[in-house]
Amino acid sequence: MRLEGVKGGLRLVAVFEAAKGLLVLLAGFGLLSMLHRDVQKIAEDLVRLSHLNPASHYPRIFIDAAARATDRHLVLLAGLAFGYALVRLVEGYGLWHERRWAEWFAAVSSGMYVPVEVFELAAHPSWPKAMTLVANLGIVFYMAWLLWRARRPRQSSSP
């Protein structure tokens, strides 16, 4: 049986993972909505709407990638987004229902991002990157602690 605080922590991580899944699911539908449309124009409008300079480095990369996007690319990316969203939603379900497999999955999947996030933060430091790293490390350590606690032999109260 779990302590109430542990259950609350698991639920927090479950909501976080499910929210990531829902966000990526929406992005997948957004990609599908661009089928048979001028993706480059959409990208240019988005850059302008964001008050970014279309000639600067990153907006230009975004616009150039959009110019090369085909319907096949969009369907492929949407499929990948749907797959990722499904994984995150299943993970969120498992954590919400306190399934051990979901704790293992959360620890491993969050831990896989840590080296990339450390590299990115070292190469281009920013607060969002730092907060993402802290959040993922928090999940990894919390899940590792839960898994470690579950493996400890229970001590009896009698001598």
Tell me what you see in this structure.
- The protein is mainly α.
- The chain contains 6 helices and no strands.
- Helix 1 packs antiparallel against helix 4, helix 2 packs antiparallel against helix 3 and helix 5 runs antiparallel to helix 6.
- The longest helix is centred in the N-terminal third of the chain and has 29 residues.
- The two termini are 24 Å apart.
Question: Keywords for this structure?
Answer:
6 helices, 159 residues, mainly alpha
Radius of gyration over C-alpha positions, nearest whole angstrom:
20 Å
Quote the average pLDDT. Answer: 91
Count up the helices.
6
Can you tell me the residue ranges where pLDDT is under 50 for at least 5 consecutive residues? none
Strand content: under 5%
Helical proportion, percent range:
over 70%
For the terminal residues, how far apart are their CA atoms? 24 Å
What would the principal axes of the Cα set say about the shape? elongated
Number of strands: 0
Structure class: mainly alpha
Tell me the major beta sheet. none
N to C succession of SSEs: HHHHHH
Write the layout of secondary structure elements.
Elements: H1 4-32, H2 39-49, H3 57-68, H4 71-96, H5 100-123, H6 127-151
Helix pairs in contact: 1-4, 2-3, 4-5, 5-6
